[in-house]
Amino acid sequence: ALAWLSQLDHAFFLYIDNADDPDVDLNAYFPQTTRASILITTRLREAEQNYWSGSGSVIHLGPLDETEAKDLLLRSAGLPLSGTQENDIATLELHSHSLAIVQAGAGIFNMGLTAGAYLNLFRSMRTKLMNGVNDRVKSKALGGYLQNVYTTWMLSYQHLSSLAAQLFRMCAYLHHSGIREDLFFGSLVSMPRVRELTIPYTPAEAAAFDSLNLFLQNFVEVGTGFWDQHRFRTCMQEVCSHSLLDFDSENEAYRVHPLVQSRLKELEDNRTSATFLLATSGFTWWNDTAQILRLASHVEVVLQPLGSSEADAAESFVHVLCVGGRYAKAEPIAVNALNVTTAKLGNTHTDTLAASSNLASILGYLGRQGDAVAMCRSLFGAYSTTLGPRHPTTLAAATNLSCRLSDLGNRRETEQIQREVLKQHLTTFGPDHLQSVQSLGHLALTVGLLGDRRQSEQMQRRVFEKYQAMFGLEHRQTMLALANLASSLASLGRHPKSEQMKRVVVEWKRQIYGVGHPETLEALTGLALSVSRDSGRHEEGRPMFEEVLERTKEALGSQHKT
């Protein structure tokens, strides 16, 4: 056949479809003639280097856009082209993957279902529905393509090396996007810390932990003990080369198709290992706001009632979710951690008290101030008894109690507690220590609420200057202090300077937290009030209020009391 093609005296077109086997050299199948125009379709990234023939010879096909995906679904299913909202939802849940959409459309047609009915079936069966048997879809319904969705991916998966395949399977229990090298490196760093728990692991948990630890050791340089970035990236690039992962160079993160994740979960149950992976990474990046925010979407994926020995993982998850503004999702994790530590360690153990403190903070964020104050009083009493009234942990409990009392409007008791805490911190650490500066900041807010606005402004300015000296301007603590100083200036009628500061805070929070985060919306509300109420520029402030309202509706629903 090749000899015949090579002897043709006119131009012709040769189409090589689904060239997805990396072990096959297609050059052996090319006719030896300049009259041939050859089109190769492949999922292999390396094909670009192997068969490139000049500028413009390679076309990268991305996912379908929403309109294309919906049209393809309707045509494949034989449905009216006008469509309905359930058709839109179906294409979104198939993540605009063309083969998956064609297979779903053929399944809808063969089983006589509506898109909504198919979608409900898909949600319950998922991988089983798209195996070409349960959905009764034959290759001719897929445009002649011989493999269904999952068979196609499995053929690529089977070509991966053992380590690359193991790394890929770990991605099954993460969010489908934003998978970063930092997540795995962070986990390795904190593995020793999490292994030393007060409550021992169950055999299943210990096996999952040891499996993760052994896996991560593959990315440690022999001799130096350093993280082997080259080996990690080589493994991820191997997976990418088979089009099982995509790399987002702008954000330095990988993404995997959610349908592929569903199939991977059938190969190996890595949920507990993924729990440890995220928890340990959370401890490593505890004080790095940007890293913690990236972890939040992954933590949400593995959320479940944690095992009896995973209270330490719960501590990490609660922190990640709270920094991400996901307080309602953090609450059941915190409740479970408190129940576990109470049952295993008793009411007065430090781990139990720490779990109680986490829950009290969450209740405060959720607006349940009465419950939060009651828990904080109990904690303060317990720490005072077990550690003494001047212990740093006791003073931290006193600060938490004062903040909850302030939320209830009990300003005088708040001030009394905060002055005592500040006095102890100044005596122990001096005026430039972080604990002393934090205490001064808390007291400054209370002084302002009690009516001494000028003294409050002076205190807030000292706090801001000290934080800026410690951390620089673009740090969470510095920005919080700047926002508080801006509010103090507004209360003194210095509106232009206050507005200027608030704009800096809003812009920073948008970049770090995102536009819909509670802290960003709170800062934007403050700016809107400055522009509209304080400066009288109502038309300029109105869009800001509207943005806050719309994003709050998106997060909480239109019927929420907020």
UniProtKB/TrEMBL annotation:
Pfam families: TPR_10, TPR_12. Coiled coil: none annotated. InterPro entries: NLR-like (IPR053137), P-loop_NTPase (IPR027417), TPR-like_helical_dom_sf (IPR011990). It comes from the Eukaryota. This is TPR-like protein. It comes from Pterulicium gracile.
